[in-house]
Amino acid sequence: MNTPLRRVGIAMLAMVVLLLANATYIQVVNADDYRLDSRNQRVLLDEYARERGQLVSQFGGTILAHSTPTDDRLRFLRKYPSGKMYAPITGYYSWRYGSGGVERLNNEVLTGSDARLFVRRLSDMVTGRDPRGGHVQLTVNPAAQKAAYDAMTDKGFRGAVVALKPNTGEILAMVSTPSFDPNRLASHDGKKQEKAWAEWNCDQREENCDHGNPMRNRAIKETYPPGSTFKLVVAAAALENGMKADSQVLRDSRVTLPGTDTTLANFAFATCPGGTLADAIAHSCNTAFAKLAGDLGASKLRSTAANFGISEDDLEIPLGVERSNLGELGSKPELYQSGIGQRDVRLTPLQDAMLSATIANRGMAMKPQLVKELLAPDLSTLEEYDPEELTGDRAMTEQNADVLRDMMIASENNTSGGGKRPDLTIASKTGTAEHGTNPKQTPPHAWYTAFAPADNPQVAIAVIVESGGDRGLAATGGTVAAEIGRRTIDAALGGN
C-alpha cells in the first residue's frame, strides 16, 4: 500500500513543481513580453484609465495625436487631427487591435509607465492627481508633410515621399499613399474598428478588395528597383576610385552584356552627349554606368554603397526599416544591369533620400531619426536624440561630394516637370525603373531624389510614384515625380 501511495505522492509533487515552474515562467521570466504585447487588453484597460501623452512636432508644437476624456469605461479617446496624413508615422492606438508605429514604440513614455517617470507616478499617488503620460516630440515638419501628402493624393498616386535634414538625419516628412485613418481604429465602438481593419487588410485575391495596403508604410517597409537614381552610388564609387568629372566614359547608344547576346540601351537609343562622367550623370546615360559598374567590380561597388547605408541590417528610426540591398552581383552581366539600378538592386524610399542627403552632407551619411525628444508630462526632457553618423566611414570625400553635387545640378537643369523656381538651385537625379514579370509592358516606377539649396543644403528628398502614376508606360521621373519633390522642398524651406 505504501508503494502506490508514494508513487501518487511523487507524481502530485512533480505536478505541483511543474505548475510552480510554469507560473514562475509566465509571471517572472515572460512577464514583460505579456505586458508589452499590444493585444493584452488588461494592460490597455489600465492605460485607458489615464490620459495618454501627445505626439507633437518640433515645429510649432503641432499636435499629431492626443487624448480627450469620455463618459464610457474607456476613460480617454485617442484622436488624430490629421489622421491619414501622419498615419505612417504615428501608427494607431486601438482597444481591439493594440498599437502600431510611434504609438507602439514609445508606449511606455506615452502611458507614463516608463521607469524615468516613477517619481512622477509616486507623486500622483500621494497627491491624488490624475496620472498622465509623457509626450513624444517628432522631427517632422508639418508644412513639408502636408505638401508631400497633398501632391501624392491630389492625383491618387501610390508611393512614398521622404524628406531629411542632411546634416542631422532628422526626418522632415514621411508620406506613404494610400494611407489609413487611425481615428477609425481608435474608436471605442468595436464594430467600427472591425470594419476598418477588414477594409484595410482584406485578401487582395478576393473580389472587391483593392485597398492598396494602406497600413504598410511604403517609405520604410517596401523596397523598389531605384532605376537611374542608383547611378549616384556608381558615380560616387567611380570618383572614389580615381575618376574625375571630365573622365571619358562609354558613349555608345547600346552595349552588349558581357558573355551574352543581350543588349542594354540608352533612353531613346541616343548616344551619350559629351562623353564624360559629368555628361553621363547630366543625361543619365545607361551604357556609361553599366560599363562603369562592370569595371569597378562588386567589391568596390558594395563598399561605397554600404557607406551610403545600403545593406544595413538593423536600421531603426526608431521604426524598423526594411533592408536595402544590391543582390548577388555575381557576374559581369549582373554588374552591368545593377549599375543602372535594375536587376536585383532594391532600395527603400528612405534609403533613396539618404543618397542625396549623404552627398549634400559632403559625403557623410547620418542616421535617420524620427524622434527629437521624449518629454515628461510637465514638458521637461527625459531624453534628447543627438545627430549620429550612420557608419562612421565616409561614402566619399568632401571634394568628390562637391563634384557630384555639381553633376546633380546639371541633371536638374535637364529634368522636366513643374515646380521649378529660378531663385532656388536644386541638385537632383531622376529614375525610371522597370519592374514586374513583363517590364517592357508594365508602367515603370518614377523616382526623383534631390537636395536644396545646392550651396547650403537644408533638405534632401526622395519621391517614388508606383507604376507610372497617371502617365502609364510614358512615365519618367521628371514628368511624374519631380514636381512632387520640388513642392516638398519648397514647403520644407518655408516657401521662400
CATH architecture of the domain at 218-366 and 387-492: 3-Layer(aba) Sandwich
Count of helix runs = 18
Q: Mean pLDDT score, rounded?
A: 92
CATH topology of the domain at 218-366 and 387-492: Beta-lactamase
Outline the biggest β-sheet.
6 strands, mixed
CATH homology group of the domain at 218-366 and 387-492: DD-peptidase/beta-lactamase superfamily
- Report strand order across the widest sheet: 3-2-1-6-11-12
- Termini distance? 96 Å
> Would you state the CATH class of the domain at 218-366 and 387-492?
Alpha Beta
- The backbone outline, from C-alpha atoms, is globular
- Helix/strand structural class: alpha+beta
Total E-strand runs? 15
Describe the fold and architecture.
It is built from 18 helices and 15 strands. With 496 residues, the protein is an alpha+beta fold. It has a domain of 255 residues: DD-peptidase/beta-lactamase superfamily (Beta-lactamase), CATH 3.40.710. Strands 3-2-1-6-11-12 form a six-stranded mixed β-sheet. β9 and β10 form a beta hairpin. α8 packs antiparallel against α18, α12 packs across α14 and α14 packs across α15. The longest helix has 28 residues.
